[in-house]
Amino acid sequence: MTEYVVNCSSFHNNKFVGIEISPSGEVYICCMLHYQNEINDTFYDEHLNNLPENWNSLEHNTMDDILRHYHAHINPEKWLSLDTCPPCCSKGCLKYEEVSA
Length: 101
Known about the structure:
two-stranded antiparallel sheet
């Protein structure tokens, strides 16, 4: 079994299953991204924050196009190391190892 640096509650059996759609039609691949962006108006991720306006809106894009944007930046291969883990994933879903005294 592959060990990731994050614990993604939205990723199971090699696919994202926790897709959420806001009342205004924005698509999020997990509850943490939805929460971060809706409450704090940021993804805590330079890449996602700098995508064109409405990039994740179903009013302006297809679901497939939106998911391609997410999957290009957020994918399990990037969760193998802290160096490659997207900041939006490490912000709320980073695993912490217990430190023994």
